[in-house]
Specification:
- The complex is a heterodimer of chains A (about 350) and B (about 290).
- Chain A is mainly α and about 350 residues long.
- In chain A, about 80% of the residues lie in helices and about 0% in strands.
- Chain A contains 15 helices and 2 strands.
- Chain A has a two-stranded antiparallel ribbon.
- In chain A, strand 1 and strand 2 form a beta hairpin.
- In chain A, helix 4 crosses helix 6 and helix 13 packs across helix 14.
- In chain B, about 40% of the residues lie in helices and about 15% in strands.
- Chain B contains 14 helices and 10 strands.
- In chain B, strands 5, 6, 7, 8, 9 and 10 form a 6-stranded mixed sheet that branches.
- Chain B starts with 5 loop residues before the first helix and ends in a 16-residue tail after the last helix.
- Classes of the chains: A mainly alpha (about 350), B alpha/beta (about 290).
């Protein structure tokens, strides 16, 4: 019943009205994440810091060097994950699809763990320095997706079912590799790995934000180009082709863009679960399955939810902080179960 | 919303400028580092510690900044410290860089699990806190205390084989190999590490444990409790056939006390040596009360 009223509300708002509402929510989350933190800084001081006013240097540094880049990073990661999840679910016509499913996260995690345990080769270290880990994670995700695509492509077509199965196989291999490296790691590295695989925005800094920005923005902007073909794909691949869409290039493009966006997200913030899976479902509940609205709305809501999860992560055990993946999984897991139970009930009744 | 006296402000500025006054608000990260600050009589300047700082017990009442390898920059900044002391195992590196970029003075304390390493740690903390003389005295006490234990150990010919297990949690227990704090403690206390041929901590199969034939099992106290006590552990199949189980020799010690390589090192060593050489317990110096 609530679902119906939500749908009706969304219909009454219309396309732009609904997006405006989500944008307002996003703005609220942005303001909250700049205003709330372990340090008690009055709102006036936060505004003065953003405006370049004359305030205590440490407060200014906390707002401008910690909270602002962290907010941008969180929003970017959330938008990238959610929009990738929405595209994957549309492409595979499978509500359970998300970037982790086709091996992207596994490949990224394997590469990152390899860097932690085996250390960085000296040549690369000079080149990458603090970016060795993100670079490795990114390379890992891209290599994984290219391998999976190779397997799934035959006579110029990508078979979606094979792609999923190949992804699952690659995930198994990647997690075995990660497991072997964890076995060979010492207690200290183990802690690092655990923390990294649970995700955190704690490493946010301006260079990291700049490194993520092209991938997150690119994914959100590129997603708009594919809204039409994704809508047509809801009817089936042949139907989409009959409607005049060039399905193959779109499929390849979507997979590559998702791999890049998710690889970059994992590289800067570790593995943050459930955002890519749950956010598109939330949007569909309210706004239906049309991709023209689903994709931008997912990006806005994904960014908003990651910011809210991060506020919880950084304040609930202050002055310590929780890994953000813990928060998203704690909130996302039960929600997803509820969603599954509801779907079962609907199909039964 | 805490307003704090301008006095502290000037202190912060002063400490950035010249470190003329000793720091008044210290955040300490690392169990041994925190113990040393207390040992130098500056425990009341600590405003927060990490989760590995469990001794003295009063430290558990202080605000917690989390595990030392998963720190939060804003969390630390929120405490308005005028000095952050970090074990060089602290992290993650980007967060430490952030703390520095906020203009908070941070100092790294080297952490090597050796006798010289402890003295080095104490002197480093002493120089950061402007307590060089006290630090020198503490370092000398530690070195002499260890030498006193070593002198007795050298007179004992037999070297029991000791197996240190980190925990008995899931599956194979994690055993200490070479180049670990546990390995160093076993050797200093006159034992032989029963696990040979690898570095760091690794899961050990039941067969490997039987093959290692340990005379003594050494475990963290909390791991013994979690596994249901001494007898339960000695009855486990992977230990039941070992000399340690036959003679009922299981030693449980607090993790930080045993492996921390802090100011309590001589006492921890004497305790371990007594447990490894039960026929010579009176030969080793007794720790003062309230130490372990």
């Amino acid at each position: 019943m609530t679902c119906l009223t939500a749908r009706d509300g969304a219909a009454a708002l219309g396309h732009w009205g609904f997006l405006a509402l989500l944008a307002a929510l996003a703005c609220a989350a942005v303001v909250a994440s700049l205003a709330i933190g372990a340090s008690a800084i009055p709102p006036g001081t936060v505004i003065a810091a953003l405006a370049g006013g004359d305030i205590a240097p440490r407060d200014a540094a906390i707002v401008l060097q910690l909270r602002l880049p962290r907010m941008l990073l969180g929003f970017g990661v959330g938008a990238a994950l959610a929009v990738s999840g929405a595209m994957m679910q549309g492409l595979f016509r499978n509500p359970l699809a998300d970037p982790a499913l086709i091996g992207i996260s596994g490949g990224a995690a394997l590469a990152a763990v390899a860097v932690i345990v085996l250390g960085v080769p000296a040549a690369v270290a000079g080149l990458a320095g603090p970016f060795a880990l993100p670079a490795a994670a990114f390379a890992g995700s891209l290599l994984t997706i290219l391998a999976v695509q190779r397997v799934a492509r035959g006579d110029g077509r990508t078979d979606v079912a094979t792609l999923l199965l190949a992804g699952i196989a690659v995930n198994a291999i990647a997690s075995a590799g990660t497991g072997y490296l964890v076995f060979g790691s010492d207690d200290r590295q183990m802690r690092d790995i655990t923390f990294w695989t649970m995700g955190s925005l704690g490493g946010a800094a301006w260079p990291v934000v700049l490194a993520l920005a092209p991938f997150a923005l690119g994914a959100v902007l590129a997603a708009g180009r594919w809204a039409g073909v994704l809508d047509a794909l809801l009817l089936g691949e042949r139907e989409a082709a009959l409607m005049g869409f060039r399905v193959e290039p779109a499929k390849t493009g979507i997979v590559i863009v998702c791999a890049a966006a998710v690889g970059a997200s994992v590289a800067v913030a570790g593995v943050i679960g459930f955002v890519g899976l749950v956010v598109p479902h939330l949007v569909r509940l309210v706004a239906g399955a049309g991709h023209r609205l689903l994709l931008p709305a997912s990006a806005l809501l994904g960014g908003t939810l990651v910011l809210l999860a991060d506020i919880v992560a950084r304040t609930v055990v202050a002055p310590a902080e929780l890994p953000i993946g813990l928060v998203t999984a704690l909130l996302g897991g039960p929600f997803f179960l509820w969603l599954l139970i509801r779907r079962r009930r609907e199909t039964l009744s | 919303m805490r307003t704090w006296p301008p006095v502290l402000f000037s202190l912060v500025l002063a400490s950035i400028a010249a470190a003329a006054d000793p720091p008044a608000r210290i955040v300490s990260v690392g169990g041994a580092v925190t113990e040393i600050v207390n040992e130098l009589g500056l425990g009341d300047t600590l405003v927060a510690v990490d989760s590995t700082s469990l001794h003295p017990p009063a430290m558990r009442e202080l605000p917690q900044i989390g595990y030392m390898r998963a720190l939060s920059a804003e969390g630390v900044a929120a405490l308005h410290p005028d000095l952050v002391l970090l074990s060089d195992n602290a992290g993650p590196p980007p967060v430490i860089a952030q703390i520095r970029s906020l203009g908070i003075p941070t100092r790294m304390v080297p952490d090597r699990p050796t006798v010289e390493g402890v003295a080095e740690k104490v002197r480093a903390v002493g120089s950061f806190l402007d307590r060089q003389e006290e630090a020198e005295a503490v370092a000398r006490d530690i070195t002499e205390g260890v030498e006193a234990v070593s002198a007795v150990v050298d007179t004992i010919p037999d070297r029991p084989r000791v197996l240190f297990l980190m925990g008995l949690g899931r599956g194979a227990p994690t055993a200490a190999g070479q180049n670990t704090a546990a390995d160093a403690m076993i050797r200093l206390a006159g034992g032989i590490n029963a696990m040979e041929g690898y570095e760091g901590y690794k899961p050990a199969s039941g067969e490997a444990i039987l093959a290692a034939a340990p005379d003594v099992l050494l475990l963290p106290s909390d791991a013994v409790e979690a596994a249901g006590g001494r007898d339960a552990i000695l009855a486990m199949p992977q230990f039941a056939g070992t000399p340690a189980a036959r003679h009922g020799r299981l030693v449980a010690m607090d993790t930080l006390y045993l492996l921390g390589f802090g100011p309590r090192l001589p006492h921890a060593l004497a305790d371990l040596a007594r447990a490894l050489h039960p026929d010579r317990t009176d030969a080793f110096p007794k720790p003062p009360r309230g130490r372990s």
